[in-house]
Amino acid sequence: MLALDNLSFAFNGRAILNKVSFRLASGEMAALLGVNGSGKSTLLKTINGILKPKEGAVLVEGVALHGLSGREIAKRIGYMPQKSSGTACTVFDAVLLGRKPHFDRSVTPHDLAAVERVLKRLGLEKLALRETAELSGGELQKVVIARALVQEPKVLLLDEPVNHLDIRNQLETMSILREITREMNLLTITVLHDLTIALRYVDRFVLLKDGALHACGDRRVMTPEAIREVFGMHAVIREIDGIPVVLPLGSATC
Amino acid sequence: MASADLSLTADYLRLVRRKNMFGFALLLLLAAAAGLSLHVGSLQLPWSEIFSALWNWDAADRTAHVIQQIRLPRATAAVLAGGSLGIAGAVMQTVLKNPLASPFTIGVSHGAAFGASFAIIFLGAGQAAGAGTFTPGLLIASSFAGALLAVGFILMLASIKGVSTEAVILSGVALSSFFGAATMLLQYFASDVQVAASVFWTFGDLGKAGWTENLLMGGVLAATLTFFLFDRWNHNALLWGDEVAASLGIRVRKLRLTAMLLSSLTVAVTTSFLGVIGFVGLMAPHLARLFVGSDHRFLLTSSALTGALMLLVSDIIARILIPPVILPVGIITSFAGTPLFLYLLTRKGKS
């Protein structure tokens, strides 16, 4: 479904991503894992063309993205940046913006209906006419996810969707994402820092180290050895009540 | 599958209609203010004569002259200049992501003032400025060139990759101070009459506009408003950051550059005709935002209408405050703007 073929990106002559290749299928949740500065956010932005790759290709359902207009890419890939802040517009307006790649100059009843469906799906009905500047972090996060979903993309790229949320909102957001990924047969790629959350909600793991792919696969790639190599940390993985938990023990370098 | 119940959409459309109503209300207020503006003046004219002078364009009596050649062009200039400043301010604040962005803070006004002083002091133009209903072409051309110089510099800076929008704002402040110093330098070596003329020019004055100027300003305003309205959803996307806009398929750099170019040009036209009119470009969008929010479907026209209303009302005040003296409207807008601005600042601090 999504295929990366030798994707490289350089900034000011410095290589940030180095020949990253992997394939992921639709209906799956994938986590992009690695230390700060390993190129996770850059990889997301290179996939949807916000950053122009130095070489390599991104294919969605076999179609190479580099030949497409920004609008055509936006119909295939939805994106959520690391930080969002609300403005003086309502939740409905904010989500309606996600229809932009689909309408020409003015919104149609079809777009409004799509927004209404997504708002209801994410349980945002009561907030629909509230100003986004007044929302809590968790609410705003859902609004931004709703905007990406209303684009009707095939791939959803989320940069740290749960990092600044409380534990309840973290679990809620992740399980909604997983449900919707299955329902709409999407491919959802999230940058995550919490390995326990990743193991609990995600089907595929993409490990990045120094801008290169370290491993890509299902749960079996998440071993203590892989964590040591990618994060430089000793860790154990235990199951508590059937839920896998990653417990970091300490730095592996000393 | 979700039901076909569209209650949220219905609620939302009601909100949209309310925002449209606000624009309509502004339009009515503007019409009322325009009527008042035709009525106010040292020559007391009954409403019936005003209307007959408006309907009967061929009339050649004194009333017709006052209405057709003095008061109506003046009111029209207020509406067009206020509209231009309001829309330019709204666009600049969005594309530069800064509530302080405005034609005044970005250096365009000071560039125009420098150009005008240059024409008056070096090229001997505009000795009659302020005396007639027209301003000499050389003066206008020179102040327009000065404004373009500022626009060019800002655009050059904005087009360099990696220069932040904050840097663009700050360089506008620096540019203003540079042009201010250059103007003072010119004035230092000028004669009394020239200094007086160049200082007088900077007082934004609606009396400078005749029908030719109005026609040009109107054309430019109509063109920019249409262009920005076509772009309204792109500006909405920009509110959520460059990356979100790019992910929605918008070419952000191109959008930012064309928006800056067009809004600055609009202001350059207005300023070179009328002089410096402070605070309208900064305030009008903030006031409009209080009522319709940041959605550019409503904000653009509301800012234009609010700017027009502000300038028209300021002009009426300028004419009745110390009769028979007609104060330059720029003085009124800045006087009224400062407390309004401080109020907005403290209001922002609370939330």
TrEMBL record, chain A:
What SUPFAM superfamilies does UniProt report for this protein, alphabetically? Answer: P-loop containing nucleoside triphosphate hydrolases (SSF52540)
SMART domains associated with the record: AAA (SM00382)
GO terms for MF: ATP binding; ATP hydrolysis activity
What keywords sit in the KW lines? ATP-binding, Hydrolase, Nucleotide-binding, Translocase, Transport
Q: Which InterPro entries match?
A: AAA+_ATPase, ABC_transporter-like_ATP-bd, ABC_transporter-like_CS, P-loop_NTPase
Q: Name one Pfam family in it.
A: ABC_tran
Q: Gene3D superfamilies from the entry?
A: P-loop containing nucleotide triphosphate hydrolases (3.40.50.300)
EC number of the protein: 3.6.3.34
Quote the PROSITE patterns the UniProt record gives.
Answer: ABC_TRANSPORTER_1, ABC_TRANSPORTER_2
Q: Cite the ABC transporter domain residue spans from the record.
A: 2-235
Highest taxon listed in the record's lineage? Bacteria
**What role is this protein assigned?**
Part of the ABC transporter complex HmuTUV involved in hemin import. Responsible for energy coupling to the transport system.
> What name does UniProt use for this protein?
Iron complex transport system ATP-binding protein
> Whose protein is this, by species?
Candidatus Electronema aureum
Automatic annotation (TrEMBL), chain B:
Please, which domain of life does this record's source organism belong to? Bacteria
- GO BP annotation list: siderophore-iron import into cell
The signal peptide annotation in the UniProt record is none
Transmembrane segments annotated in the record for this chain: 21-40, 75-92, 104-125, 137-160, 167-190, 210-230, 259-284, 296-313, 325-345
The compartments listed are:
Cell membrane
Which cellular component appears as one GO term in the record? Answer: plasma membrane
Recall the GO molecular function terms of this protein's record: transmembrane transporter activity
**Coiled-coil annotated spans:** none
What Pfam families does the annotation carry?
FecCD (PF01032)
Q: Which InterPro entries match?
A: ABC_BtuC-like, ABC_transptr_permease_BtuC
Q: Does the keyword Transmembrane helix apply?
A: yes
Q: Which UniProt keywords apply?
A: Cell membrane, Membrane, Transmembrane, Transmembrane helix, Transport
How this chain sits in the membrane, per its record, is:
Multi-pass membrane protein
Hey, which family's this protein in?
Belongs to the binding-protein-dependent transport system permease family. FecCD subfamily.
The protein here is known as: Iron complex transport system permease protein
Query: In which organism is this protein found?
Result: Candidatus Electronema aureum
Native organism taxonomy: Bacteria, Pseudomonadati, Thermodesulfobacteriota, Desulfobulbia, Desulfobulbales
